[in-house]
């Protein structure tokens, strides 16, 4: 699959990047972490409404329904930029709820979903609705690896079962958009590693001049570009097998790139002041959302088995 973004698509991506850099740059990211530590909340309602006004959630709604009228490839480019900025909140669930739940398209409502294994729901305490449920079930906060993704355990088994069933209808779209978020994070950590390697000096030269660091950065770029190709192709075809493969590759790129970026930063990478750990923690959580590695592997295995069996039919 040879997928090259059109000029309009490139302009869309550039516009979203400019919006997020101006509205949710590094200072806002760090402020969000501090605010989340104090309150257990991470969704900035004002920013959420600004995203809604910019068409982030209504991107794929038809124009006659008040949407932008674009498709899945454009949504992937937009979510890639959100992942690059580490924008917090249930972006995927709210996007999927646009046109279904009142206020979601406009960013007036925050919508979450049962997109994790187990009775865990992200951002439950600050959401107005849960995808596919008539209300917001009660939940007990649990510790999250990512300071900007608060989690809650839902007590009622019936609510959890119904929430999972509703998510199943959106599984492929949710997995692809989450893969796009992972892709944006993977590409961002490449940038962070290369920049630091050019600034940090040892033995009288930038550490980027050393072979080991060059290899780490090159491997990061390869992972990210392979994932980018898979995510873009899946956005064009919408094939469940390609979506599963894209999620696998994007999860691996996001997690391993964050780890390698941390390695490039050395001791500095382990400190709270560096942003690397935020990318790693978010990548861990997203790898468990919508479709896990095990789930994606099952989809791919089923497709391979089906193809093998069909080829044996005389």
Number of helices: 11
Report the count of strand segments.
7
Residues in β-strands, percent: 5-15%
Largest sheet: 3 strands, antiparallel
Residue-averaged pLDDT: 93
Overall geometry comes to: globular
Low-confidence regions: none
Helical content class: 55-70%
Write the layout of secondary structure elements.
Blueprint lengths: L6 H17 L2 H14 L5 H9 L18 H13 L6 H7 L13 E2 L7 E3 L6 E2 L8 E4 L8 E4 L2 H12 L2 H29 L1 E2 L2 E2 L4 H27 L2 H26 L10 H11 L6 H20 L2
Parallel strand pairs: 1-3
Antiparallel strand pairs: 2-5, 4-5, 6-7
Helix pairs in contact: 1-4, 4-7, 4-8, 7-8, 7-9, 7-10, 8-9, 9-10, 9-11
Task: Give me a quick take on this structure.
With 314 residues, this protein is mainly alpha-helical. The chain has helices at residues 7-23, 26-39, 45-53, 72-84, 91-97, 157-168, 171-199, 211-237, 240-265, 276-286, 293-312; strands at 111-112, 120-122, 129-130, 139-142, 151-154, 201-202, 205-206.
Question: Which labels suit this protein?
Answer:
314 residues; mainly alpha; 7 strands; three-stranded antiparallel β-sheet; two-stranded parallel sheet; globular
